[in-house]
Design a protein that fits this description.
With about 130 residues, the chain is an alpha/beta fold. The chain has a single domain, classed as P-loop containing nucleotide triphosphate hydrolases (Rossmann fold, 3-Layer(aba) Sandwich). Helices cover about 50% and strands about 20% of the residues. It has a four-stranded parallel sheet, sandwiched between helices. The longest helix has 20 residues. The termini are far apart. It is found in: Cytoplasm, Cytosol. It comes from Pectinophora gossypiella. Pfam families: P-mevalo_kinase. Keywords: ATP-binding, Cholesterol biosynthesis, Cholesterol metabolism, Cytoplasm, Kinase, Lipid biosynthesis, Lipid metabolism, Nucleotide-binding, Steroid biosynthesis, Steroid metabolism, Sterol biosynthesis, Sterol metabolism, Transferase.
Length: about 130
């Protein structure tokens, strides 16, 4: 059963995307699944480099040490197939009526979702002051 609606959250780093999507998940309960495009990136990177996946998934200094290399590698992968990480994240998603994608960063991510899931896509851009 495909989802009935997919909410794509975008915004700059530290803008509150995770805070908001975690809160939405609590409100919606079992009806929703939160999907993170960064999950397959970090999973592959941890396995390839023999790193601690939980630390890469956290908001830690450990992740920051590996951030630039992960970004470079993921950009190279996206040049070959712009939807590779979106596809991987969705393949491991639990079937629920509402999907919340909490970490849209690129226009090509939105493009892939719109091409794949058509008119059930809604985009939400988060903007916040640094204060």
């Amino acid at each position: 059963m495909p989802p009935r609606i997919i909410l794509l959250f975008s915004g700059k780093r530290k803008s509150g995307k995770d805070f908001l999507t975690d809160h939405l998940q609590k409100l919606l309960g079992d009806r929703c699944e939160v999907i993170k495009i960064s999950q397959p990136i970090k999973s592959h990177w941890a396995k390839e480099k023999n790193l601690n996946l939980n630390e890469l998934l956290s908001d830690s200094e450990y992740k920051e040490l590996h951030r630039l290399d992960m970004i470079r590698w993921s950009d190279e992968m996206r040049e070959q197939d712009y939807g590779c990480f979106c596809r991987a994240a969705c393949q491991s998603a639990v079937e629920k009526p509402i999907w919340i994608v909490s970490d849209i960063r690129r226009r090509t991510d939105i493009r892939w979702f719109k091409e794949t899931y058509k008119d059930i896509i809604r985009t939400i851009q988060i903007s916040a002051d640094e204060d």
